[in-house]
């Protein structure tokens, strides 16, 4: 664990640094409040800071106030060091946002106990952040395939449509459907069908560009968003996706399944966001045209705006 020590007294700072390193902490030093604030506002700042009350530049309480005013993703646990022993000073320090207060000269046993308490709080914070991130992923990812779920891909679609309106660039959407998926489930069972969905989702994700988005639209349908892409570019990507899927069977422990997809392509430069549902409808209509034309092929929506 990394700890910042900010103290303008070199001897006090050195003694404290040696003690903390002996206890297994990684120490970052600052010789005044301005340097301490720079470190705490830098990349990967220490999670715990021991600040002397009186320092040149910024005092310990002033740093507390500044940090608490900021909106920070991770909390900085702050301990104030001071020779002040007035209870009113203690109250002012805590009111400024300090978490703890240690009087000088420092009692090392007391300091060690207080550091353990601060460390536990920061560890709990990391657990909460990890849990929050896990919940966020669960809320935006399809539970089976791991790609964006319908709500998430439609949120991205809305954002890309607004960008298209703002920048005057074309947005292509691809509606992809696994051919004869019901037959796969009926013939091989739902576990194999699930394996097919996961495999095809990952093939698509690895084939599109880094700034494209792939999401499960529902059942065996996938929606692909291609920013800055006209109908011709969308069709080229659709053909790559179709080829990638059809070229290699999906192999599971229970079956070897040849899979293909039909894809409908639509594209436009959005004049307003009222056209969102229209573009999806055009891609869906093109998809059903591909199905009627024998499957394992692509179709471009006639209404797609040429760019």
Task: Give a description of the structure.
- This protein has 307 residues and is an alpha/beta fold.
- The radius of gyration is 29 Å and the shape is elongated.
- The protein has ten helices and twelve strands.
- α7 (181-188) crosses α8 and α8 crosses α9 (231-247).
- It has two domains: 2-139, Response regulator (Rossmann fold, 3-Layer(aba) Sandwich); 150-300, Alpha-Beta Plaits (2-Layer Sandwich), CATH 3.30.70.270.
- The strands form three sheets. A five-stranded parallel sheet has the order 2-1-3-4-5, sandwiched between helices. The protein has a five-stranded mixed sheet with strand order 7-8-6-11-12, sandwiched between helices. A two-stranded antiparallel sheet has the order 9-10.
- The longest helix has 33 residues, at 108-140.
Task: Annotate the secondary structure layout.
Elements: E1 2-6, H1 10-22, E2 26-30, H2 33-40, E3 48-52, H3 60-69, E4 77-82, H4 87-95, E5 100-103, H5 108-140, H6 150-167, E6 170-178, H7 181-188, H8 190-207, E7 213-218, E8 221-227, H9 231-247, E9 250-251, E10 256-257, E11 261-269, H10 276-292, E12 298-300
Parallel strand pairs: 1-2, 1-3, 3-4, 4-5, 11-12
Antiparallel strand pairs: 6-8, 6-11, 7-8, 9-10
Helix pairs in contact: 7-8, 8-9
């Amino acid at each position: 664990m990394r700890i910042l020590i900010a103290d303008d007294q070199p001897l006090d700072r050195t003694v404290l640094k040696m003690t903390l390193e002996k206890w297994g902490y990684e120490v970052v030093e600052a010789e005044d409040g301005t340097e301490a604030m720079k470190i705490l506002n830098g990349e990967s700042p220490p999670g715990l800071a021991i600040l002397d009350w009186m320092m040149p530049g910024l005092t310990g309480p002033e740093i507390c106030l500044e940090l608490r005013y900021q909106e920070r993703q991770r909390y900085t646990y702050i301990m104030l060091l001071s020779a002040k022993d007035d209870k009113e000073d203690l109250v002012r320090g805590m009111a400024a946002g300090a978490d703890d207060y240690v009087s000088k000269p420092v009692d090392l046993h007391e300091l060690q106990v207080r550091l353990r308490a601060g460390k536990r709080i920061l560890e709990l914070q990391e657990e909460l952040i990890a849990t929050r991130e896990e919940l966020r992923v669960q809320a935006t990812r399809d539970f089976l395939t791991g790609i964006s779920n319908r709500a998430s891909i439609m949120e991205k679609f809305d954002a890309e449509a607004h960008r298209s309106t703002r920048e005057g660039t074309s947005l292509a959407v691809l509606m992809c459907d696994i051919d004869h998926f019901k037959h796969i489930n009926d013939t091989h069972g739902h576990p194999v069908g699930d394996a097919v969905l996961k495999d095809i989702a990952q093939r698509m994700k690895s084939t599109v560009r880094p700034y494209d988005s792939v999401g499960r639209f529902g059942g065996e349908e996938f929606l692909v968003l291609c920013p800055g892409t006209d109908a011709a570019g969308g069709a080229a990507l659709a053909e790559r996706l179709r080829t990638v899927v059809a070229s290699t069977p999906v192999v599971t422990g229970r079956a070897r399944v040849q899979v293909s997809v039909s894809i409908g392509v639509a594209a436009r430069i959005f004049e307003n966001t009222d056209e969102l549902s229209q573009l999806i409808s055009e891609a869906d209509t093109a998809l059903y045209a591909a199905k009627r034309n024998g499957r394992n092929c692509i179709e471009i929506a006639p209404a797609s705006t040429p760019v």
